Amino acid sequence: MIEKKIIIGLLLVCFLNGCVQSTALLGPAITIGTTGNVMQAGIQLGTNHAIKQETGKDAFTHITDAVEEDKRKKNFNKNFTRILENRIKKTREKLNLTNQ
C-alpha cells in the first residue's frame, strides 16, 4: 500500500511539475500541512502576492533574476578592472620610456 502511494505521488509530481509555479496557494498549503502554523503560511502568501504585484514575477523567478543580474555586474566589474589595469601598465611603460 505504501509503495502504491509513493508511485502515485511520484507520477503526479512528474506530470504536474509545470503547474506548481503558477499555483500561489501550494506553498502556504504545504506550510500549514507540515508545521501547522497558519500565521507563517499567511505571511508567506502575502509576501508572494506582493512580489507578484510589484514585479510581475513569482518569488522564485524574481530571486533567480536578481542573482543572475548580480553575476553579470560582477563579470562586468572584473572585465573593467582588467582593462583598466592593462591601460595603467601601458601608460607607465610609456612614461618610463620617455623619462629615459
Q: What is the number of domains?
A: 2
Number of strands: 0
Q: What would you call the shape?
A: elongated
Strand content: under 5%
Biggest pleated sheet: none
Amino-to-carboxy terminus distance: 89 Å
SSE run: HHHH
Structural class: mainly alpha
Point out poorly predicted stretches: none
Model description:
By secondary structure, the protein is an all-alpha fold. It has 2 domains: 1-56, no CATH class; 58-100. The chain has helices at residues 2-15, 26-35, 38-55, 59-99. It has 4 helices and no strands. α2 packs antiparallel against α3 (38-55).
Layout: helices, strands, pairs:
Blueprint: H1 2-15, H2 26-35, H3 38-55, H4 59-99
Helix pairs in contact: 2-3
Quick rundown:
The protein has 100 residues and is mainly alpha-helical. The chain has helices spanning 2-15, 26-35, 38-55, 59-99.
Which terms would index this structure?
100 residues; mainly alpha
